[in-house]
Amino acid sequence: MNVIVNVILAVQMLTALGMIGLILIQHGKGADMGAAFGSGSSGSLFGASGSANFLSRTTAVLAAVFFAATLALAYFGNARPASSGSVLEAPAAASPAPAASGAAPAAIPVPVVPASGAAQIPTK
């Protein structure tokens, strides 16, 4: 499943970069008005109005792929095994303390986690 997530993430990044490039290439609405009065170059690679249709449709397709990849990543991100509670409520794992010159290891106190969020607010 990790390979699928990596592939979807790569597709999402490529579509995001493609959308950024296509959006930066497109002309604004005011550029068409200037071309109508003779200023600016109306003759372009795609024709007078062909670039707007091609670029806007390609941007729409890339946006749809981007949103689908985002939804797939959200689905796979939430598809983990159900646990019995929150990670914050789990007891802390005690790590063994290094023994100092042959002395018996001291007991490590485990912090007590309050049951509710209101009890975690610090007081003066």
From TrEMBL:
One of its GO terms (cellular component) is plasma membrane. It holds the Pfam family SecG. Keywords: Cell membrane, Membrane, Protein transport, Translocation, Transmembrane, Transmembrane helix, Transport. GO terms for biological process: intracellular protein transmembrane transport; protein secretion; protein transport by the Sec complex. It is a multi-pass membrane protein. It is found in: Cell membrane. The chain crosses the membrane at residues 7-25, 54-76. One of its GO terms (molecular function) is protein-transporting ATPase activity. Involved in protein export. Participates in an early event of protein translocation. Belongs to the SecG family. This is Protein-export membrane protein SecG.
